[in-house]
Design brief:
single chain; alpha/beta; eight-stranded mixed beta sheet; 15 helices; 12% strand
């Protein structure tokens, strides 16, 4: 059962071969067994989960069920969930019980999908290894000595370890795709604005986007059908006609043009990753696709641009955490200013403080024009590169990350080296484009390798079609860690 697709689980529930309660009990038992060594979940509440499962069973009995009603899902602890601890992986929110549901949570509840709990993450989604969490590092299920990637590392690890059939994640600079690659699962970042950010604790508002994480492209398509939809509470939410993202899954790839950016296959790419991606290109060519060389000349500037813009937005967004209204407050202080400074010094971790300081600096008088404004101009050039590339191709393909998972603590004292892990994922966020990662092999240490697809705006169905056809021809996505 733990290896079944969401479609199969939905069909079993529809035919009453099992109930949602029985299904949730299976996953809860696995979480109880595996979470002590994987640390993928921050909060689990079996009573709440089973109550939601009973509601799902009642919906089905009343003839109100949808395709995934009764199928459980885990949620990244960045989404406000009424009555649940919502910590964002930080001491600052270690005691915050959300009083309302994020729009994404509302959509899953409306679909009758019970929550299995809240997954661990880098603090305030700032990190590429899931080591900055106040609740401890998440372990990669393929080898617990290695990182799972971040910031949605808990979500990726719980799906890879079969502790949940699917999970939600968020992607600001690669935080769905990079952990999906390092954990050997499929993850998708939609077009910016396609999924509401209401109730999703903000890191960098012009970059953040929620998306699905699951074993396969087909599962991600079904989850995206649930997650998307206009939300008047989010000023960046796009009002467009509802799509069925699974509609093109079975379309053949004959005539498909795959863009291969020369910049993505240059110096710095691990040789085993390069070989796996080349093998994937050959497989897609056998399926009827045609490789086309394209250029994303400004992509090499994506990391410096991102680490100006994202910290700038973070410094503004995180100013609300001051100890006054909710969350952590320093136990001892002399006056209001002392309370502010001690609360923030004690409540935030080192990586969050680093980014707040960088953000405040680039927005300060005398530096705004030199850094922030220039970064915005280069962001436009990066987006223009994609626009030009899509004139000659339908999707863009390359590695998700320069290498595979690294050891816990290996890059803890070298933040720049850590930032380079998002080298290939950040450009899509800066342009607001959809991107996804899917497994395409393993390195010599048995660690997963990720293949990235980037589509044009609103081309999620096309990307999912390419990924699904590739996954029908290969079995990388169906492999599970030994002993799991």
């Amino acid at each position: 059962m733990i290896d079944y697709s969401l479609k199969t689980l939905g069909a079993m529930l529809a035919s009453q071969q099992l109930s949602s309660r029985e299904l949730c009990q299976t996953w809860l038992a696995r979480i109880a067994e595996l979470n002590p060594r994987i640390n993928a979940f921050i909060t689990v509440d079996a009573d709440k989960t089973l109550a939601e499962a009973d509601c799902a069973d009642q919906m089905r009995d009343a003839g109100q069920a949808g395709p995934l009603t009764g199928v459980p899902v885990a949620h990244k602890d960045i989404f406000c969930t009424e009555g649940w601890l919502t910590s964002c992986g930080s001491k600052m929110l270690h005691n915050f019980i959300a009083p309302y549901d994020a729009h994404v949570i509302q959509r899953f509840k409306a679909a009758g999908m019970p929550s299995l709990g809240k997954t661990n993450m880098d603090e305030f989604a700032m990190g590429s290894s899931n080591e900055t969490s106040y609740f401890g590092a998440v372990k990669n299920p393929w080898n617990p000595d290695y990182v799972p990637g971040g910031s949605s590392g808990g979500a990726a690890a719980c799906v890879a370890a079969r502790m949940a059939p699917a999970a939600t994640g968020t992607d600001t600079g690669g935080s769905i795709r990079q952990p999906a690659a390092l954990c050997g699962i499929t993850g998708l970042k939609p077009t910016y604005g396609l999924v509401s950010r209401f109730g999703m604790i903000a890191f960098a508002s012009s970059l953040d986007q929620a998306g699905p994480m699951a074993k396969s492209a087909e599962d991600c398509a079904l989850l995206l059908n649930v997650m998307t939809g206009f939300d008047p509470n989010d000023s960046t939410s796009l009002e467009r006609e509802k799509e069925d993202y699974s509609r093109d899954l079975e379309q053949p790839l004959a005539g498909l043009r795959i863009g291969l950016p020369r910049e993505f296959f240059a110096e710095g790419l691990n040789t085993e990753v390069a070989a796996a991606v080349e093998t994937a290109i050959a497989e897609l060519t056998k399926l009827g696709a045609t490789p086309v060389e394209v250029s994303l000349a400004n992509s090499k500037l994506a990391i410096p641009v991102y680490y100006v813009l994202a910290p700038a937005e973070a410094s503004s967004n995180l100013s609300r955490f001051d100890g006054v209204r909710y969350g952590y407050r320093a136990p001892e202080y002399t006056d209001l200013n002392d309370m502010y400074s001690k609360t923030r010094a004690q409540g935030f971790g080192d990586e969050v403080k680093r980014r707040i300081l960088i953000g405040a600096y680039v927005l300060s008088h005398g530096y705004y024009d030199a850094y922030y404004l220039q970064a915005q101009k280069i962001r436009r050039l990066i987006a223009n590169d994609f626009t030009e590339a899509f004139k000659s191709c339908d999707v863009i393909l390359g590695p998700t990350a320069p290498g595979t998972a690294f050891k816990l603590g290996e890059k803890a004292d070298d933040p720049v080296s850590m930032y380079l892990n998002d080298l290939y994922t950040i450009p899509a966020n800066l342009a607001g484009l959809p991107g996804m990662s899917l497994p395409c092999g393993f390195d010599g240490k048995g660690l997963p390798i990720g293949l990235q697809l980037v589509g044009n705006y609103f081309a999620e169905a096309k990307m999912l079609n390419v990924a699904h056809q590739y996954q029908r021809a290969t079995d990388w996505h169906s492999r599970a860690p030994e002993g799991i």
